[in-house]
Amino acid sequence: MTTTEAFLFVIGGVLVVAMTARVAPRIRVAGPLLLVLIGIVASYLPFLPDISVNPEFILVGVLPPLLYSAAVSLPAVEFRRDLLPIAGLAVVLVFVSSFVLGTFFYLVIPDLGYPLALALGAILSPTDAVATAVAKRLGVSRRVVTMLEGESLLNDASALVILNSAVAAFVMIASTGQAPPAIDAVGGFFWAVFIAIVIGAIVGYANLRLRSWLRSSAATTAAGFIVPFVAYLPTEELGGSGLVAAVVAGIVTGQGAARWFTPEQRMSDRVTWHTVELLLEGGVFLIMGLEMSEIVTGTANGIHGIGHGLWIAGAALGILLIVRTGYVALLVWGQGRRLHPRRTERLNAISDRIDEIEAGGPEQYGDRGLRITEAGWNRRLAIFRRRIARAMSDLNYYRAAPLGWKHGTIIVWSGMRGVVTLAAAQTLPADAPSRHFLIFVAFTVALTSLMLQGFTLPGLVRLLRVSNEDDENLVRSEQQRLVREMHQAALLAADEGSLTRRDGSPFAAEFTERVGPLFLQAGEAEDDEARDILELRLALIRVRRERLIELSSGGQFGSAALRRALAELDASQINLELRLESAD
Questions:
Q1: Of 236, 321, 433, 572, whose CB is crowded by the most CB atoms within 10 A?
Q2: Has residue 417 got a pLDDT over 70?
Q3: Which of 156, 461, 182, 155 is nearest to 327 (CA)?
Q4: Dist CA 233 CA 242 (whole Å)
Q5: By C-alpha distance, which of 439, 137, 136 is closest to 288?
């Protein structure tokens, strides 16, 4: 393919992805599924050349920004609340699936050693984020969506660590005849996760500081493009999981954006990363379809044949679903125990005990022999109260979005394979026996999973009659509480006279008392006074945002309510700043 042909192909691909994003919602089909179908059909057109993309480009150039983009918008509060089941799906289930599939492939493909069989099992184990997009559109419980999203963000790293260890074992056996000790693989996994978390957190924090210093939306957007790669590359060089590092950097950035970035930066980031996500994800699924004809041809000319590959792929998909069903059944059973009435009784008892201790004071309940100031005593009580309030909020969340067998069924059926499976399959060693056949099996499992589960998931959700009505009621209740908290903070700041203009100068006390800052519109005052009113309303927005940030760290409000409140404040601030520019 010439350079001109390559550019024309990219232009055509972008147009197809953009048009699919418009058409897919109208015909009630997820965009990635439609793109795969388009790619398969196009792959058999005689005037199109064979398409082959270097898998390293997908692993290094596509997956880090894709996962970073998803992590930035991850609902961190809900992620924390369900971290244990998410970690189980992303790590334990991947390990179990990999070894069960590896044993199956070892038994049914005679010329395949166990390391390569395990490698193929690891390739098929991670799920794809396309299920999250489908679930969101169908109105599934936010809790289920968060678990699916968290699983798809983290299980890639687990699968790739197993894949790398298995491939290394294959290479070592081929060269020395001896397999590496299993303890090396276990130690390598924990090191890969540890170093990824450390580097990802450092890169995420540095990203917040640098971009808050740059200020300009254009400059910060340009700097933001390199963040996932800055996290990924050094982590991989140190033997860690670059994908986990990119995810951690995204989570840190997403949680610090409210404190460090301007409203313009946040709005610019949302639009920019949604665009990047659309193009990269759409492009990969389109390429997935385009490569299918070449893979089918290569398998047909091999020793195993297409028929043998199809039944192995079908059996592998069945095994994946059976293992996933068993694990999710245990997960749902375990999550039901969180709602035991004794937990509420225990928290109420602890809260009553804190009230009793507060009434007795440090004189009665102080640390034996230790001197405690009144401020220190109050600080300790406040910490305990926040912990109890967070635990009660978590229980309310679990009650509003319980995990029953219907939700478990959706979690099982949403376990589709996709981008990582396709890219990882093509990284198998060139001298691996029956390499074309193994890639064909991986592609067939991914395609069948996407088509079968992706197209039937909407019908399954309708059949089960699940909805997120309780979720929405909880979000509305939290939003009302947030508005009251921010309103009270604004009133208090106005009464104390602590409001300041953007340049730091204070408002005159008689001015704040006279204009009624929470309700007066700028058009009701003289021109000179109108500018001060706009400045005052901006100051009130800053107070509300500070209170919102303070409340967001307490874990008592869900991510949906916090983000909606922040978006409303950002929109109001941008509007007021534009009016001030016009006045100037």
A1: 236
A2: yes
A3: 155
A4: 6
A5: 439
